[in-house]
Write a structure and sequence with these properties.
Length: about 150
């Protein structure tokens, strides 16, 4: 039953935007599965589902690697302007502080913006660490971030 349910979850999230666990549970019930929110939560964790940005500035569940998050300069600019609180750097690292709950979404947008100098990001709840290479590119990346925030 669990395997069948998880296959149905994957089918559902691949064919329509599902934004919340409750929405997924309701859709599963309509498909004949007797589930609770706790069951859906466990399935999401076991399946390694992630939330990715949608075009309407919301988030939906996806299988890792199956959907490219939408990333546009305008969206990145707006998200930076709305959420970044401080910028700091040391050596080849830049640290962005955001309002709580926004670091992961912003880091995902940065990751998918293909900035050649940023080799990766690590995000918590309100902090993003950008790893920049080469070190001489740090001022350039900081400048780009500052432009997005204007």
């Amino acid at each position: 039953m669990k395997t069948r349910r998880q296959m149905k979850i994957q089918e559902i999230i691949n064919n329509q935007p599902i934004h919340t666990q409750e929405e997924l549970a309701e859709r599963l019930r309509k498909e004949g599965f007797d589930v609770t929110q706790a069951t859906v939560s466990r399935d999401i964790k076991e399946m390694g589902l992630i939330k990715v940005p949608t075009s309407d500035d919301d988030y939906r569940y996806a299988v890792p690697g199956s959907a490219q998050p939408l990333s546009t300069p305008d969206r990145l600019k707006r998200r930076m302007r709305e959420t970044v609180v401080t910028i700091n750097d040391s050596e080849n690292l830049i640290v962005l502080r955001t309002i709580p709950g926004n670091a992961q979404a912003l880091a995902s947008l940065i990751d998918h913006s293909n900035w050649e100098e940023v080799i990766g990001t690590v995000a918590g709840d309100d902090t993003i660490l950008l790893v920049v290479k080469p070190i001489s590119a740090v001022p350039q990346v900081r400048g780009r971030i500052a432009q997005f925030m204007e």
